[in-house]
TrEMBL record:
The keyword Metal-binding does not apply. This is L-gulonolactone oxidase. One of its GO terms (molecular function) is D-arabinono-1,4-lactone oxidase activity. Its EC number is 1.1.3.8. It catalyses: L-gulono-1,4-lactone + O2 = L-ascorbate + H2O2 + H(+). One of its GO terms (cellular component) is membrane.
Amino acid sequence: MYRSWWLLGAIHLLVSVVTAMLPQSPIQCDGTGGCNLFNSYGVWNDRKNCHVPNVTYPRTENELLRAVAYANQNKLKLRVVSQFSHTIPKLACPATSTGNSLLISTSSYDSGIEIDAANLAVTVDGGVGLRKLIDTVEAAGLSLVAAPYWEGVSIGGLISTGSHGSSWWGKGGSVHDHIVGLSLIVPAKQSEGYAKILRLEPKDQLFNAAKVSMGLLGVISKVKLLLEKGFKRSVSYDFTDDDQIENKYMDHGKKYEFADITWYPSKHTAAYRYDNRVPLNISGDGVYDFLGFQANPILVSKSVRASEKVMDNGHNLSGKCILASSFLGYKKLVANGLKNGLIFTGYPVIGNQGKMQTSGSCLYSTGKDSSCAWDPRINGLFFYETTAIFPAPKFRDFILDVKKLRDLVKPENFCGVDIYNGFLIRFIKASEAYLGQPEESVVVDFNYYRADDASTPRFDQDVWEEVEQLAFFKHGAKPHWAKNRNMAFLNVQSKYSKFTKFVGVKRQLDPQNMFSSEWSDEIVFGKEGAKSDGCGLEGMCICSEDRHCSPGKGYFCKPGVVYEEARVCRYSPSSNVESDSPKTDL
Ligand SMILES: Cc1cc2nc3c(=O)[nH]c(=O)nc-3n(C[C@H](O)[C@H](O)[C@H](O)COP(=O)(O)OP(=O)(O)OC[C@H]3O[C@@H](n4cnc5c(N)ncnc54)[C@H](O)[C@@H]3O)c2cc1C
Ligand SMILES: *[C@@H]1O[C@H](CO)[C@@H](O)[C@H](O)[C@H]1NC(C)=O
Ligand SMILES: *[C@@H]1O[C@H](CO)[C@@H](O)[C@H](O)[C@H]1NC(C)=O
Ligand SMILES: *[C@@H]1O[C@H](CO)[C@@H](O)[C@H](O)[C@H]1NC(C)=O
């Protein structure tokens, strides 16, 4: 069966004329006045709807100002969301506890892009999409150096959550470290018209609080970013073994401006990305159309999902491993989506910065038979995304523990992430932002299977829970604000030495807590909710009793294999059998 997906994938790549379905709006209204807000995967961490009584779509900064004033005057809770709502935790959802609320969508506030070529800077409206910004600056012969790999995001949204690409060079891989101006609309006194615009610059006290602020301080209306003269990049991948990866990642990050590493633990494989800038006059018109962000035939996404589900329910690890091998083989063949022209013909692939850093071709074309693989309307891929940020030298201990765990529980138990993108390892620099990274850091991302409903345990979930707890608790990693299951945020405030400074600014700019919600408290303040039956299954809690797992289905709360203090939901065929020993394949 896997052969046919492989083939379909290959055919798709060669033919590339499949038509696609645009992502739906994250705001779905039922016609009776109320609307629901979703993230791009269609499901929040708690799987509950986010009901919003009123949504407004300002087109100008002045309309934004009036919306904030209206909410303040009417004592409404207020949140902002972008065109596609790509943040996974429920941050964009306005509070429900106090009755009425307003949601501002920035999807129509997306036209202003003013380039100041002499000063190598650009000022953009908060709702402008990343692709539009990149294309506009490239057309002016300039380049934006740092950007996330996924282009379906808005400038306001990506800055707010500390989004990043990968670089230890220059100002580094985090976009917020390239900002030199930011306009923030905050609530104000009646005499000031209920709302005002703060024009912040790096010298302002509030600047470092406002850069990464999750929409908790106010609405970001304008962002001024530094640019550089246009440049190209030359990219190659080396798919090799993962030996010594713990001793190589530091040098790799230092040596190549846009380095990253994708580690496929079950396959003992690491793909090192060799990626440096080259001058514009070097020939090459390549693009990086990242495979995972290309439009997929809906049939393929559905059948991969269906098989993953059958394999998980059937505890078929070898099936998952076959799937992982075929995908890895395909990625190697097509260089992850790098294209010298129409297709990949060989390394290095050289192309303009604007075509190499960021992609998302599944966002565009129109039609019915292809889409982003995770489009919530198609029963396609459905997964969790864990993203942990480590002080650079500490990442080594994490790798060593993961390797130890892999070897103890058997590598087959790690095939689940290798079906997706393995462990994507990226590099970001120290930032002045209060809720940014205080030191040079390494970010690791991994995606893994999520069940269709909250009460269905996953066969290998104990492994991913242990890896998560290794990262966030044993090794003190910080969670990416825009990703992760809720447990990753437990106690997050104690991991930021400037957290109290941020809270001080919050009190000053938003004294009524207009921009707070029960969800933002849960995430940003890392508050643990009440532990209910089954809460461990979806990372809504760390289990401490069997009932937090699924004893009825054979999943019990057990200690970790490498990290004793971890508590994970592990399958054990009989409740009477001691199940602390690693499980085996079927
Ligand atoms: C497929 C995919 C790939 C991704 N790849 C990367 C990656 O490579 N690197 C990375 O770091 N991240 C990545 N992300 C995460 C993504 O960059 C963040 O989730 C980003 O915040 C999404 O921006 P958005 O415009 O969709 O914001 P939203 O999800 O709409 O909002 C995010 C937060 O910002 C607030 N907000 C939005 N606009 C404003 C505004 N104008 N003023 C004030 N507050 C605002 C919202 O209230 C919310 O709290 C990826 C996500 C997906 C789904
Ligand atoms: C929704 O909010 C707008 C302000 O942005 C306001 O003018 C309008 O009356 C509100 N609608 C409802 C039904 O409250
Ligand atoms: C590119 O331009 C630089 C100077 O700007 C020049 O030294 C170099 O020879 C040029 N290279 C090519 C391949 O044209
Ligand atoms: C596991 O999946 C593989 C690949 O689909 C299949 O060939 C095999 O028969 C399955 N094994 C079991 C025990 O279901």
